[in-house]
Structure formats: C-alpha cells, structure tokens
Design goal:
The protein contains six helices and eleven strands. With about 210 residues, it is α+β, with helices and mostly antiparallel strands. The protein folds into two domains: about 70 residues, no CATH class; about 130 residues. The strands form two sheets. The chain has a six-stranded mixed β-sheet. The chain is globular. The two termini are about 25 Å apart.
Length: about 210
C-alpha cells in the first residue's frame, strides 16, 4: 500500500490470512464470499488497522483490527467512483442515483466516491444493495469548503435523490475527521465532527485537529 488506509477504504484480505481472532461464526463465511473489510474510524492498535466486517444482515457487523501483512489490496471510494454494477442491478435506485450525482459532485472539483453498501458491492461484486438502500457518499475536503458551496451541493444532491427515489448520505472528510454535509449545509454554527477519539461539536471542522 502506498499510503495508510483511511476510513471507508476497502481492504482485500489476503487468501492465506489466518482467521480473525474472537470473531463470530458468520465472519469466516462472509470473508470467504467477499474477502473485503472496511476501514473504521477508530484508533490503531500498534500497526493493526481498525476494520469492520459485513455479514448478510444488518445485525451481522463485526469490528476488529487487521495487521497490514494480511492485506493484499486496497480500494478507495475514489477508485470505485466510475465502476458500474452488474447490468441486472444497475437500475436499483441507489445505483441510479450514483450515476445521477457524478456530474454534480465532479462540478465542485472535489475527490469523492461511493461508500457503504454501494461501495462494497462495486468492490466485491457481491450483491449488497437492496431496492431500499441509501447511497452513501464520501467527499474529500482537505481545505475548508465554503458553507455556500456546501449548501448548493446539498440542494442539488437532494433534488437528484428525490428524482431517483433513493436517500443520499454524504460525509465530508477532512484530513483528520468527518462530518455530515446535511449538517454543514444548514445555517447552524456547529457540526458534529466524527474523530478517531470520538465525536466533537465544533464550529470549524478544519480547525479541530
């Protein structure tokens, strides 16, 4: 890997990696079906990276730590931005919305990509999205994003979501943390910043190191 994994990155578990310690029984089967885990926003333990394993249901979520030597590849949300799902699934609302928002977000000049269920399916080719799934998006903002720009982006994405019949959830990622576009687009002075060491209510997400 050329850089340290960031939250929402998908890591491919090496074929020869030993089973995860203290994992529920479903975890091994899940990794066998789709050998990807998602990087969590949590402190590292030594060199080990905080990751989450997805199962077949919402109740099947397992958080653990993975050593870098057990990783064979890394995919970022940006890597998945232009990928298309299987032809039989491309018209599901979340995937239709993903196509609809590409030009909108690209117009802001920001790096971005799908996360959550959409990102996992695009990375693993394992059917994950349902007709009722939200579309989760990660937008990178290494430098401050004007609230006016955020508000315009939120409005445009909301219109697209309404047209496609799907809900969209956009996380703005600073170099150190993340926050909701929906919160930042409002006139509120403070937003809930998700940081590695826990949530913080802040006025300037880029000033909170």
């Amino acid at each position: 890997m050329q850089r340290a994994p960031r939250p929402h990155d998908l890591l491919r578990v090496a074929p020869d990696a030993p089973p995860l310690a203290d994992a529920p029984a479903w975890v091994a089967a899940s990794i066998a079906r789709a050998p990807f885990v998602v990087v969590r926003r949590a402190p590292r333990i030594g060199d080990a990276i905080a990751v989450g394993v997805r199962g077949m249901t919402r109740a099947e979520r397992f958080g653990t730590w993975l050593e870098p030597r057990r990783i064979s590849a890394m995919l970022t949300p940006e890597d998945l931005c232009a990928r298309e799902p299987d032809a039989a699934r491309r018209d599901l609302p979340a995937f239709a919305l993903l196509r609809a928002v590409r030009a909108i977000i690209d117009g802001c000049g920001l790096d971005w990509g799908p996360a959550g269920s959409a990102g996992f399916e695009l990375a693993s080719a394992m059917p994950t999205i349902t007709r009722d799934s939200d579309l989760d998006i990660v937008v990178r903002a290494p430098t401050p994003l004007p609230r006016e720009t955020a508000s315009s982006l939120f409005d445009a994405l909301s219109r697209a979501a309404q047209q496609e019949g799907a809900h969209i959830d956009v996380q703005i990622e600073t170099p150190d943390a993340a926050f909701s576009l929906a919160e930042f687009a409002r006139a509120s002075l403070r937003v809930m910043l998700r940081h590695t060491d826990g949530p913080r209510l802040v006025a300037d997400p880029w000033a909170a190191a």
